[in-house]
Amino acid sequence: MPLKNRVVLSILIGILAGIGTYFLPVSTIYNGAHLGDLCPIFYGIKHFIDGTSVYEGHFFNNAPMTAYPFTTMMSLYPFSFLPIGFVGPVFFSVSSALFAYALLFDGKHWRILVLLSPAYIFSLHSIQFVPLLSSALVLPFLLPLAAIKPQLGIVLFASGKWNLKLFILFGLFIVLSFIIYPNWLTDWLFYGNLSRYKGTMPILQGFGFLLLLSLLKLKDRRSRILAAMAVIPQRLWYDQLMLFFIPQTISQLAVLLFGSWLSFFLSMHYGWLLENELQDKGSWMMFVNFVYLPALAMIYHDKISELHSFIKSRMAFYGNKLKQ
User: Which of 114-118, 122-126, 127-131, 196-200 has the lowest mean pLDDT?
Assistant: First the structure.
């Protein structure tokens, strides 16, 4: 697909995503606007501008707010100049356009089917950062944004295409955050209600320990993505979007799409989605079995094929011996 067509298609996808965000019932409302996961960020921006505590003692819907680091608030501050009702749609429109372009970047246009995954759809529903950060795996100029969501930033540090200039930009961004708000890190750690995050590490769920095998192939960038994703705390069903850059064929992508939706519908069938804020142990067992482990098998596809060929040839050899 020519560059112009990729750009046009990405922009169209971004516009559709923005329209969807505007009209669909997004998860969290702030000041009458559907802000989803951006709510605590703009809540914090407002308090910083007003000169009050960004983190301490803030509640939303009678529950303590799970706060993002101040670097996240810095990155979204320009969006605060928009009418509040357009913040979510514009942010997710831009994120989706970049993500669509990243999916189309290497010529494997079937990757656009990732937009049908639960990870992307749930990101849209709650206006998540995951599509934007996932784009950085392919579009290096976005890598300094690793500072806005630390756990996914670990994946970007492990598998992103960094260079000296990008590291400097990342460092300058961090330094600027401390110049603007010198105590943000300690305030975030002590008053940020981080315990409410309730993230889960896939490696600790069921057969998730097998994901350690990805460490044996760290020269393969896909293994670094999987290894990092296996150990970071995360939440279903959106944080796993980066896994969809692991498939190398449309059939492999179909396996992850099917596994994602299967784990979701089974969780819904057993009622797990109504418990533990979507983080039920049963849901995680399903997701590890049907998504994470198949992704590991894709990384070892060549080795598995070689082993299969060897076993097949040995069986044929001994079969001929028996016939003789």
Answer: 196-200
Name the nearest CA neighbour of 259 among 117, 155, 126, 120.
117
CB burial string 265-300: b at 16+ within 10 A, e below: ebbeeeebbeeeebbbebbbbbbbbbbbbbbbebbb
Look up the pTM and report it.
Answer: 0.90
Those residues whose C-beta lies under 8 Å from the C-beta of residue 141, and which sit 6 or more positions away, are: 166
Co-location of 153 and 269 in the same domain? no
Same domain, 183 and 235: no
Q: Express each pLDDT in 141-170 by its tens digit.
A: 999 999 999 999 999 999 999 999 999 999
Q: What is the pLDDT of residue 323?
A: 62
Note whether 34 and 69 are same-domain residues. yes
* Host H or E run for residue 30: strand 29-30
**DSSP assignment of 214-253, as one string?**
GGGGTTSHHHHHHHHHHHS-B-TTTTTGGGGGS--SHHHH
**Tokens read off for 246:** 């692991």
**What total of structural domains would you count in the chain?**
2
How far is residue 176 from each of residues 38, 74, 93, 217, measured CA to CA in Å?
Answer: 22, 9, 27, 37
